[in-house]
From TrEMBL:
InterPro entries: Rhodanese-like_dom, Rhodanese-like_dom_sf, ThiF/MoeB/HesA, ThiF_NAD_FAD-bd, Ubiquitin-activating_enz. This is Molybdopterin-synthase adenylyltransferase. It comes from Ekhidna lutea. Residues 258-331 form the Rhodanese domain. PROSITE patterns: RHODANESE_3. Keywords: ATP-binding, Nucleotide-binding, Nucleotidyltransferase, Transferase. It catalyses: [molybdopterin-synthase sulfur-carrier protein]-C-terminal Gly-Gly + ATP + H(+) = [molybdopterin-synthase sulfur-carrier protein]-C-terminal Gly-Gly-AMP + diphosphate. The keyword Nucleotidyltransferase applies. GO terms for cellular component: cytoplasm. GO terms for molecular function: ATP binding; molybdopterin-synthase adenylyltransferase activity; thiosulfate-cyanide sulfurtransferase activity; ubiquitin-like modifier activating enzyme activity.
Amino acid sequence: MNTERYQRQIVLPDFGAEGQQKLLDAKVVVVGAGGLGVPVLQYLVGMGVGTIRIVDGDDISLSNLQRQVLYSTADVGKKKAEVAKERLKALNPEVSIEVTTQMLDGNNVKDLISGYDLVVDCTDNIETRYIINDACVANEIPFVYGALYKHEGHVSVFNYQGSPSYRDVYPDDSAKVDNCNEIGVLGVLPGIIGTYQAMEAVKVLTGIGQPLAGKLLVVDAINTEHHVFELAPITKPEPKKETSKDSWLTWQELTEMDLDQYHLIDVRSEVEYNQSHDDRFENRPMDELTTFKAEKEVILVCNKGNATRQAAALIAAQNPEVKVHQMKGGYSTQ
């Protein structure tokens, strides 16, 4: 062990040489070497995680550089994973770094994560996220989740010591999720969320602190607000309960329902709501849902179905006995 390199963390009483040795012995897969992956990789390599596999098939583009600060203008057109390895080895040559310059998919995921202790999801692709989740569940590997939406970021730890999996919290895998290319992102936000992901990885690998297992951290960067929500515990399904599929509604189904029996909520911002909306829905932006008390079942709508996933988790945390429905595909399918 290079005690000089890691001295600043070894002197921490709750970490020490034992915690450092756990990092040195650890093997981590980081899926995505972009906005979230860059800070995750920099800190895990710097702190001495022994073996890291980088999985990313993308090339570096000029538009990446405002947030993916590991790369330079001269790197445009090169493979992210290969350039990342070169820079990271310069940071800490003691770490073993493997690269896979292809995208993770259902055919290769088992081979890519087998034998590793942890997977860190740094993708902006929901299909890949479900593949990661299902493979981690099947192989009993925890994974650290991070996601971005405009000025907001989410962090959690799934499939860890009995905590929910990603699919437990977001059961429907058919809704489209906008990525940074479509909705934009301020360059600093991935750095904030990726750093949180790195911290959660360190906690899982070393056993220090309380990981965000069974919890969802929501960071509102533009208003400098942080909220931690408890995720519903896993319970065995009972016959009287509806399945997760029943919580997704089509617009045709909505017309056949007695809407007086429901709270109908449009979770978009006030600006988006004023531009266009369905008059049956009242506007309650995401930040208002943290204290929302539901007296009856809730139906949520947004543009494409992404924001309602997050809103449903917030409402469920505050109102665990209330059924929450979502409009499948949001206004894009109306």
